[in-house]
């Protein structure tokens, strides 16, 4: 379990009371926390509160008697540094290289190899002020992590931007910076951690047109893909769902703001949509569940006449219709090259009671698909309330899950922020 030494600094903002909850969370999670407060911060929250929360003395002055060279020692000691709340004044002093109190002097002694998180908290006019904007830009350029602010009612009674993130959200950002395992985080914190991760899911079966009214398709409903989309969005991920025109799309899909959905019909339309989507945006993971036709129509022979498919209009029904199919390339084999930084998750559905045949199918897919993980399920095992999935890293079994919800959680762990 990873425990960190956190140098927690407060500057003068009404949000100091929120910083106290965060301090308590950090201490409860087992981190060692040293607190430094500006003189203004101590007008908002008392030393006794800060000491009570951490069980340690609060550092307030560069020239404290008996604490020689504290500005160097504390910086050396820390694994990560947090300025929370970050006042407009202290942010501006950072950018100007001023060191007139312990917080700013510590920053001048900062070791830029260590994570330094800044959680701004201020009135919207202060936050929008050019001095604040350029100071934030400057210190961000130096490598500090500037956390976003929330929009809402501010302490001054106005509505706007500049509200400090909630303690849970800042806790998540610290966890990311210090690699705290997911198991240590609350659900809200996990949501925040995942919030800048994008997942692309393909779901449902392609439909290969014969003519304007007929097609060849498969029995895939797209239900598992839709369930994964909903569950992963509820875990904080931003999800793009490419689903077949006739796929199952529960109401949550349209209600959930974190899901963007697009439809496809044929193999070619999915292939085009997939390439466009992957070139428009970077994804952290691509979960490719769509049941893609192995063959598309090449030609149709009807009443002795051979026509290139698909045929416009409707073929007159004669005695015999001969369809010539052409093999489609495997889309899964192309995803990694189009999205080299994404974790690619391939699916294999088999229909055999033989464990050996199932293993062979996974092995074959692992050989040609450049996928990070393969999820296998077998039609024979699917029943009421029972839908087992096995996740493989190449051909090595790593996890089992029963049902789409459990599968989504297992995949969220593999895709999530803290590997
Ligand atoms: C009630 C009250 C609330 C304040 N809230 C904030 C705030 O949220 N953000 C901020 O940047 N300044 C705020 N200020 C102003 C700062 O406390 C002031 O600029 C102070 O000098 C900051 O000092 P420091 O950066 O050394 O901590 C507030 C002042 C008062 C009196």
What does this structure look like?
There is one protein chain. The protein has helices at 16-28, 41-44, 47-54, 70-77, 88-96, 102-108, 124-128, 130-141, 167-178, 187-194, 223-234, 251-255, 267-280, 332-338, 355-368, 404-415; strands at 5-10, 32-37, 58-59, 80-86, 116-120, 145-146, 150-153, 159-163, 198-203, 208-209, 215-216, 238-244, 259-264, 285-288, 295-302, 305-308, 321-327, 343-350, 373-378, 388-393, 396-402. By secondary structure, it is an alpha/beta fold. The protein has an eight-stranded mixed β-sheet, with helices on both faces. The protein has a six-stranded parallel β-sheet with strand order 3-2-1-4-5-6, sandwiched between helices. It is elongated, with a radius of gyration of 28 Å. The relative contact order is 0.09. The site of flavin mononucleotide has 15 residues, from helix 5.
Percentage of residues in strands: 25-35%
Characterize the overall form: elongated
Q: Tell me the helix content.
A: 25-40%
Low-pLDDT runs:
none
The first-level CATH class of the largest domain is given as Alpha Beta
Reported CATH architecture of the largest domain: 3-Layer(aba) Sandwich
On the 0-100 scale, what is the average pLDDT?
90
Strand order, largest beta sheet: 13-12-9-14-18-19-20-21
How many domains? The number is 2
User: How many DSSP helices?
Assistant: 16
**Sheet bearing the most strands, described?**
8 strands, mixed
In oligomeric terms, what are we looking at? single chain
Radius of gyration: 28 Å
How many strand units? 21
Ligands bound to this protein structure: flavin mononucleotide
Backbone structural class: alpha/beta
The CATH topology of the largest domain is given as Rossmann fold
Distance between the termini: 13 Å
Task: Report the CATH superfamily of the largest domain.
Answer: CoaB-like
């Amino acid at each position: 379990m990873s425990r960190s030494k956190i140098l927690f600094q407060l500057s003068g903002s009404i949000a100091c009371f929120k910083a106290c909850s965060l301090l308590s969370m950090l201490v409860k999670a087992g981190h060692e926390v040293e607190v430094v407060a500006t003189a203004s911060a101590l007008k908002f929250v008392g030393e006794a509160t800060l000491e009570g929360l951490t069980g340690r003395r609060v550092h307030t002055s560069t020239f404290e008697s008996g604490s020689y060279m504290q500005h160097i020692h504390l910086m050396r000691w820390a694994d990560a540094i947090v300025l929370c709340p970050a006042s407009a004044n202290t942010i501006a002093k950072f950018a100007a290289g001023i060191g007139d109190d312990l917080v700013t002097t510590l920053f001048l002694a900062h070791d830029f190899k260590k994570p330094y998180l800044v959680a701004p908290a201020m009135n919207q006019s202060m936050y929008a002020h050019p001095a604040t904007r350029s100071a934030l830009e400057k210190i961000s350029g130096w490598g500090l992590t500037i956390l976003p602010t929330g929009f809402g009612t501010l302490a001054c009674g106005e509505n706007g931007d500049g509200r400090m993130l909630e303690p849970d959200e800042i806790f998540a950002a610290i966890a990311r910076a210090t690699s705290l395992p997911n198991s240590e985080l609350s659900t809200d914190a996990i949501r925040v951690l995942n919030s800048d991760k994008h997942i692309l899911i393909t779901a449902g079966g392609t439909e290969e047109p014969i003519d304007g009214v007929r097609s060849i398709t498969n029995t895939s409903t797209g239900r598992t893909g839709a369930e994964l989309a909903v569950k992963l969005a509820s875990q904080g991920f931003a999800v793009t769902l490419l689903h077949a025109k006739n796929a199952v799309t529960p109401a949550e899909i349209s209600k959930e703001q974190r899901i963007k959905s697009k439809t496809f019909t044929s193999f070619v339309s999915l292939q085009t949509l997939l390439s466009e989507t992957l070139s428009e945006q970077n994804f952290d993971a691509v979960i490719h569940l769509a049941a893609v036709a192995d063959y598309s129509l090449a030609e149709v022979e009807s009443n002795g006449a051979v026509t290139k498919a698909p045929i416009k209009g409707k073929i007159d029904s004669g005695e015999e219709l001969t369809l010539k199919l052409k093999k489609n390339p495997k889309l899964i084999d192309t995803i990694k090259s189009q999205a080299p930084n994404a974790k690619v998750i391939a699916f294999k559905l088999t229909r055999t009671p033989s464990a050996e045949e199932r293993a062979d199918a996974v092995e074959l897919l692992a050989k040609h698909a450049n996928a990070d993980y393969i999820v296998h399920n077998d039609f024979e095992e699917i029943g009421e309330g029972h839908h087992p999935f096995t996740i493989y890293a190449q051909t090595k079994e790593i996890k089992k899950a029963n049902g789409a919800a459990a599968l989504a959680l297992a995949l969220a762990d593999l895709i999530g922020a803290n590997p």
